[in-house]
Amino acid sequence: MIDVVVVGSGPNGLSAAIALAQQGLEVVVFEADSVAGGGTRSGPLTLEGYLHDLCSAVHPMGVLSPFWRTLPLAEHGLEWAFPQLSVAHPLDGGRAATLSLSVDETAERLGRDAGAYRRLVSPFVDAGPELLADLMAPLGKIPGHPVTMARFGLAGGLPASLLARAAFSTPEARALLAGLAGHSILPLEAPLSGAVGLIFAVTAHLSAWPVAVGGSQSIARALVALFESLRGRVQLGSPVRSLAELPPSRAVIFDTSPGPMADIAGDALPDSYRRRLRRYRYGPGTFKVDYALDGPIPWAAADCARASTIHVGGTLEEIADAERAPWRGRVAERPYLIVCQQSHFDPSRAPESKHTGYAYCHVPSGCTVDMTDAIEAQIERFAPGFRDRVLARHVWSPADFERHNPNYVGGAITGGAADATQLFTRPVARLDPYSTPNPRLFIASASTPPGGGVHGMCGWHAAQSVLRRLGKR
C-alpha cells in the first residue's frame, strides 16, 4: 500500500508531495496531462522560437513562499530573472506610477502622496517575512505577530476603492493601489480587496517580481526533480476519473477544484459534503492574448519597459468600473489588463531583438465574447504603435482555459472567488479546510487557504493535515 496519492501536479500538489516525501512517506503523483505543472506551464503558442507562459508568468509569491524558500530548488534548475521595477501603471499623457524595491523611491515618484504611501506600507514592509507567514497560515491559527496582523486587518479589510481615496489624493497613487487590488478579481468596492492591494505592494518591497528563466515550466520542472530526488514518482498521462482507478493508499490529496474532487470521490464523500463542494463559487473568468512581437512594447512612459508587470486600466475610477463589470455579467469596454513582458528579463523567451508578452482581463464566467480588440485598444492607448509590432497572437478564452485545465471552471484561474465570505470557508466551512468527512481524502488546491497564486502553501498546509492524520509530526 502506498502512503499517499496526489491527484494533480500543480504547484500545490507537488508541494504537498515534497513535504510528505521529506518525512519518508511513499508518495505518487497522478497527472492527467503529458507534462507536469498545472498553471506553471510554458509552450510555443505562436511562432517558432517564441516561448509563452500558458497561465502564470510573474511570481512574487513564488520567490517569497515560506515553504519554497526552504527548498533547494536552485540545485534542481530553477533560476529567477529579476526586473528593475515590479510594476508600472501607465496613465494618460505619458505618465506612470511605478513600484520598485525601495519604499522611498516608490513614494517619491508619487509626489505629494509620498508621506502617505510611506505611512501606509512601511510598517508592513518592516515586518514583511513575519507578516507573510501569518497571512499564508491556515485560518484560525493564532498569528505569530498579532499586533501587526491587527493593524493590517484595519487597513486591508477596507474596500480598495475606499482605502485608495482615504489614503491618497493623487491619481497616480490611487491608480497604483487600484491596479494592485485588481489581482483580487473582486469589485474594488468589495471588503478585503484592499488587503490584496496591500499584500502585493509589500511583496514588491521585499523582492522584485521575477520571471522564471526558461518559462514558468521551469518551476514545475524543479519541483518534480526535487520530488523525484526524494524517491517520489510522477505518473504523467494518467487521468483520474474515480478513486477506483487509484492504487491502494493511506491517504489521497486532491490538487483540484472542488467540483472535480466531488466527481472523482463520488460516494466516498457524503452527499451533503459533495453538495457543498458543488455550491463553491468560482467568480469571473479570464480572457488572455499571447503575443510574438517584433520589438518591445512601445510604452509612452519609458519606465514601463523596466517592469515585469504592467497594470493597464487608467485611473482608480476606470479600473473600478472594469472590475465591477464581470460580476454583473458583462464585459468592460475598457478592461483592466495585467500585461507581462517576460522576454525583457529572460532573453530565452524570443529570438534576438524580438519579444514575447501577454495580456489578460477578467470577464464573466464562461464568457464567449472575443476581447482581443478591446485588449489591444487599451494597450495602444498607452503604447501607440503596439499593433504594428504584433507578429502573431494566440487567444485563450474562458472555455480554452477550462479545456486546458478542468480546474479552471468557467475560466477562473485563481481557485475561486476570494470574497469576504468564501475567503474564510474555502472550499467549505471546516476547522481543518484541507480535510474532508472521509479521513483518507484531503484537498490541497488553490480553493483552500491561503488561496490563489504560485507559492505551494496550500499544498504544504494540506500535507501537515495528512501527517497529523497519519500520526506523524
Give me the secondary-structure category.
alpha/beta
* Helix fraction by DSSP (H/I, runs of at least 4): 25-40%
Largest sheet: 7 strands, mixed
Look at the structure and give the mean pLDDT: 96
Question: Globular, elongated, flat, extended or rod-shaped: what is the shape?
Answer: globular
**CATH structural class of the largest domain:** Alpha Beta
Number of helices: 16
Which oligomerization state do the chains in this entry correspond to? single chain
Strand content: 15-25%
Structure, described:
The protein has 473 residues and is α/β, with parallel strands linked by helices. The chain has three domains: 2-32 and 238-280 and 417-469, FAD/NAD(P)-binding domain, CATH 3.50.50.60; 42-65 and 79-101 and 207-211 and 283-414, Polyamine Oxidase, Chain A, domain 2; 117-201, no CATH class. It is 33% helix and 16% strand. The protein contains 16 helices and 16 strands. Strands 7-6-12-13-14-11-15 form a seven-stranded mixed sheet, with helices on both faces. Helix 1 links the parallel strand 1 and strand 2. Helix 1 (11-21) runs parallel beside helix 10 (217-229), helix 1 (11-21) crosses helix 16 and helix 7 (160-167) crosses helix 9. The longest helix is centred in the middle third of the chain and has 14 residues, at 193-206. It starts with a strand and ends with a helix. The mean pLDDT is 96.
Write the layout of secondary structure elements.
Elements (H helix, E strand, L loop, with lengths): L1 E6 L3 H11 L5 E4 L11 E2 L8 E2 L6 H5 L15 E2 L3 E7 L3 E5 L3 H6 L5 H13 L1 H8 L10 H11 L3 H8 L3 H11 L11 H14 L4 E2 L4 H13 L3 E3 L13 E6 L3 H8 L5 H8 L6 E9 L13 E6 L3 H9 L12 E4 L14 E9 L8 H11 L7 E7 L1 H7 L36 E3 L13 H13 L4
Parallel strand pairs: 1-2, 1-10, 2-9, 6-12, 10-16
Antiparallel strand pairs: 3-4, 5-8, 6-7, 11-14, 11-15, 12-13, 13-14
Helix pairs in contact: 1-10, 1-16, 4-9, 6-9, 7-8, 7-9, 8-9, 8-13, 11-12
